[in-house]
Amino acid sequence: MTDNQQKYLNYKEQFKRLNRAIANGFNLEAMFIAYSIMEDRSESVLKHSDKYDTYIKSLRGHPEALHSKVKYIQKTAECKKDLLHRYFSDELLDNILDWKEERNRMVHALLKQELTSEELENLALHGKEYARIFCNRATNYRRALERAQNKD
User: Fold this and answer.
1) Alpha carbon distance 114, 117 (integer Å)
2) Is the CB of residue 31 less than 8 Å from the CB of residue 47?
3) Is 31 strand, coil or helix?
4) What is the pLDDT of residues 71-102, one digit of tens each?
5) Which of 8, 19, 34, 86 could form a disulfide with 127 if both were Cys (CB 3.0 to 4.6 A apart)?
6) Closest to 99 (Cα-Cα) out of 36, 5, 31
7) Exposed e or buried b for every residue in 107-130, given b needs 16+ CB within 10 A?
8) Are 14 and 33 a contacting pair, CB within 8 Å?
9) In whole angstroms, what is the distance from residue 28 CA to residue 144 CA?
10) Residue 60: count of CB within 10 angstroms of its CB
11) Is-contact 143 44, C-beta < 8 A?
């Protein structure tokens, strides 16, 4: 089995778990899975764009994080000549960052009982949607890069 096939099967399994978690009301687990997917896809986008090493250097010793990866992708996607612009210049990455901030707020509010089950479910559903869209965009971006390289 190739690495791409294994990656596909892993994602298929994680989305099954994500759907099961939401269906059974395990919204915290669903948010954890969605976050993990987005974290991995952001790294993948940076690696495929050959910008991962530059991103790591820009951290100056700070740990990798979803927020910094997404911000780096956004900054690079500002250049209209970069293929990243075509796939990541809309509101998706802003939505992901907003979702992450709300997720963090809710996690900290858990023990203070300042949130409802409905809020958790809503956040889990949004996380699932953003993770799905991000996966699709990352895949489409990778394929576009491959097509461009095959033309050369």
Assistant:
1) 10
2) no
3) helix
4) 999 999 999 999 999 999 999 999 999 999 99
5) 34
6) 31
7) eeeeeeeeeeeeebeebbebbbeb
8) yes
9) 34
10) 6
11) no
Q: Say which DSSP state 91 is in.
A: S
User: 118-135, pLDDT tens digit by residue?
Assistant: 989 999 999 999 999 999
Q: Which amino acid is at 14?
A: Q
> Based on the number of CB atoms within 10 Å of its own CB, is 79 exposed (0-12), middle (13-18) or buried (19 or more)?
exposed
DSSP string over 102-133: HHHHHHHHTTTT-S-HHHHHHHHHHHHHHHHH
Could you tell me if 44 and 7 are in contact, meaning their C-beta atoms sit under 8 angstroms apart? no
Whole-model pTM: value is 0.92
Tokens of 58: 């820009």
The C-alpha angle with vertex 52 and arms to 50 and 53, in degrees rounded to 5, equals: 100
Per-residue tokens: 26: 């395990």
